[in-house]
C-alpha cells in the first residue's frame, strides 16, 4: 500500500479550478482570483494567550477565491468542499450565519466594521477551491478568510486585513483563536518563518531554509474528539497561574529568565505549576529556535522541537496517541526533531528529517499507526512558501 499524500496545487492549477467552479456556478467569469496559504507553526504552541511568541511558516498549500462584485446586496458563496450558501449583506453579523459561510461572509462584515470596505459595497459572488486539508490544524479557515479579504481590499495594509480576519473567526464564526493563522497567511514570506509576538503584535522574518533537510507534515486525520472544554480549561489555568504569581501574563515571567522559572516552581498546585512551566519554557524555546535558525543550527532546532512536544504532552497535556505516534515514529526513523503542531488532541505534527530517511519515517508512522488501530495519516513535504497573493 502506498502512503496517502496531501499535495499542494500550483498557482495555475488553483486559478484554473477556481475559475471553472465560478463559471459553472455563476454563468460568467470572475473579476480575479486571489489565494492565501495554510500554515504550520514551527514552535511556540499554546502561548499566544499568555502574551508569548510563535514561529509559523506559510505552507505551499493554499485556498483560492475567484471573486466578482455584485450591486444588489447579495452574497453567493460556493466551495468544492461545502454546500452552496446564498444570503444578503444584512444576514451577516456577530454569530451569524452558522456553518462555513461564517468564515467567508464574516470577512465582509469584519472588513466593513474595521473601515476597510466602503459602505456602498454591494455584495459579491465567490468560488473557493482549497488544497489546504480542512480541520487538520493547518489553518484552512484562515486561508479561506485571507484569500477573500485580500480580494475585497487588495490595497489595505496586510496587518489590518489580518486583524479583520481574526474578528471574523472570533465574532462571526465564534471560534476562539489568536492571531497566528491570519498573520502567517498574510505576512509570512517565502523562505522565512514569521516570528509573532502576541504581547506587542509585532512581527519579524526569520530565515527558514533547512537546506539538506525535509520538513515533513503528518496530518494524523484523527477523528474529531469532544475536547471543546480543553482550550478554555488550559487558557483559564494559564491565566490563574499568572494571577497567583502576581503578574499580568506569564510572558512577564518568561522575560525574567531563570528567576521566572523559579517563580513558577513556587506554585503549590501541581497542575497549575505544569501548565505554567510549559508556557515559560515554550517561550524560551522559541527564542532559542530563532537563534538556531539565524545560525543555521538545525540539530539544535530539532532538539527544541522534541522538547516542545514533550512539554505539550507531559506538562500541558494536549497531545494524543496519533500525535505521539507521528513524533515517536519519525524520531525512530532518524528525524532530528518532531512535535505536534497546532492546538492538539488531533490535527498535525511536523518532523525535521534528512531526505534519505523520509520513506522510512513514513513507513514507520503508518505501520505503528496500523498496529495501534489509529487512522491512516496523510503526509506532505513542505517549504516556507509565499503569503496571500493575486493569482489572476
Ligand atoms: P483548520 O483551520 O485547522 O483547518 P478550523 O476548524 O479552524 O480548522 O476550520 C475549518 C472550518 O473552516 C471548516 O469546518 C469550514 O467551516 C471552514 N472552511 C475552511 N476551508 C474551507 C473551504 N475550502 N470551503 C468551505 N469551508 C471551509
Ligand atoms: Mg482554523
Automatic annotation (TrEMBL):
- Please list which residues make up the signal peptide: none
Looking at the record, the residues that make up the GHMP kinase N-terminal domain are: 103-187
Looking up InterPro entries in the UniProt record yields: Galactokinase, Galactokinase_CS, GalKase_N, GHMP_kinase_C_dom, GHMP_kinase_C_sf, GHMP_kinase_N_dom, GHMP_knse_ATP-bd_CS, Mevalonate/galactokinase
The GHMP kinase C-terminal domain is annotated at 290-368
Q: Which residues form the Galactokinase N-terminal domain?
A: 21-69
- Give the UniProt entry's GO cellular component terms: cytosol
Give the UniProt record's GO annotations in the biological process aspect.
Answer: galactose metabolic process
Q: Which GO MF terms does the UniProt record name?
A: ATP binding; galactokinase activity; metal ion binding
EC?
2.7.1.6
Pfam families linked to this entry: GalKase_gal_bdg, GHMP_kinases_C, GHMP_kinases_N
User: Superkingdom of this entry's organism?
Assistant: Bacteria
Coiled coil regions, renumbered to chain: none
Listed A to Z, the keywords are: ATP-binding, Carbohydrate metabolism, Galactose metabolism, Kinase, Magnesium, Metal-binding, Nucleotide-binding, Transferase
Give the record's family classification: Belongs to the GHMP kinase family. GalK subfamily.
Q: What is this protein called?
A: Galactokinase
The primary gene name is galK
Amino acid at each position: 500500500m502506498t502512503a496517502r499524500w496531501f499535495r499542494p496545487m500550483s498557482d495555475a492549477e488553483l486559478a484554473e479550478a477556481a475559475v471553472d467552479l465560478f463559471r459553472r456556478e455563476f454563468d460568467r467569469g470572475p473579476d480575479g482570483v486571489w489565494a492565501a496559504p495554510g500554515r504550520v507553526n514551527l514552535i511556540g504552541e499554546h502561548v499566544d494567550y499568555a502574551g508569548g511568541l510563535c514561529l509559523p511558516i506559510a505552507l505551499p498549500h493554499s485556498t483560492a477565491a475567484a471573486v466578482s462584485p455584485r450591486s444588489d446586496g447579495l452574497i453567493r458563496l460556493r466551495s468544492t468542499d461545502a454546500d452552496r450558501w446564498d444570503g444578503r449583506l444584512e444576514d451577516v453579523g456577530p454569530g451569524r450565519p452558522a456553518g462555513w459561510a461564517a468564515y467567508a461572509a464574516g470577512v465582509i462584515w469584519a472588513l466593513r466594521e474595521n473601515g476597510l470596505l466602503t459602505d456602498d459595497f454591494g455584495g459579491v459572488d465567490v468560488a473557493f477551491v482549497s488544497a489546504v486539508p480542512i480541520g487538520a490544524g493547518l489553518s484552512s479557515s484562515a486561508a479561506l478568510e485571507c484569500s477573500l479579504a485580500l480580494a475585497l481590499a487588495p490595497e489595505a495594509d496586510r496587518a489590518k486585513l489580518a486583524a479583520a480576519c481574526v474578528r471574523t473567526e472570533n465574532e462571526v464564526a465564534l471560534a476562539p483563536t489568536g492571531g497566528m493563522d491570519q498573520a502567517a497567511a498574510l505576512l509570512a514570506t517565502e523562505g522565512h518563518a514569521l516570528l509573532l509576538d502576541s504581547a506587542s503584535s509585532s512581527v519579524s522574518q526569520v530565515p527558514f531554509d533547512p537546506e539538506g533537510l525535509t520538513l515533513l507534515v503528518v496530518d494524523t486525520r484523527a477523528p474529531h474528539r469532544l475536547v471543546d472544554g480543553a482550550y478554555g480549561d488550559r487558557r483559564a489555568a494559564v491565566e490563574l497561574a499568572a494571577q497567583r504569581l502576581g503578574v499580568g501574563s506569564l510572558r512577564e515571567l518568561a522575560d525574567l529568565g531563570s528567576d521566572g522559572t523559579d517563580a513558577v516552581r513556587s506554585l503549590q498546585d501541581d497542575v497549575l505549576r505544569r501548565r505554567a512551566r510549559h508556557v515559560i519554557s515554550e517561550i524560551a524555546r522559541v527564542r532559542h529556535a530563532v537563534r538556531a535558525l539565524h545560525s543555521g543550527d538545525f540539530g539544535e532546532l530539532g532538539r527544541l522541537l522534541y522538547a516542545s512536544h514533550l512539554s505539550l504532552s507531559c506538562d500541558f497535556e494536549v497531545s494524543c496517541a496519533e500525535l505521539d505516534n507521528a513524533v515517536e515514529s519519525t524520531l525512530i526513523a532518524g528525524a532530528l526533531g518532531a512535535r505536534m503542531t497546532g492546538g492538539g488532541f488531533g490535527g498535525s505534527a511536523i518532523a525535521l528529517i534528512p531526505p534519505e530517511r523520509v520513506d522510512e519515517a513514513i513507513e514507520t508512522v503508518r505501520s505503528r499507526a496500523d498496529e495501534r488501530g489509529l487512522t491512516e495519516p496523510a503526509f506532505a513535504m513542505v517549504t516556507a512558501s509565499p503569503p496571500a497573493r493575486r493569482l489572476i
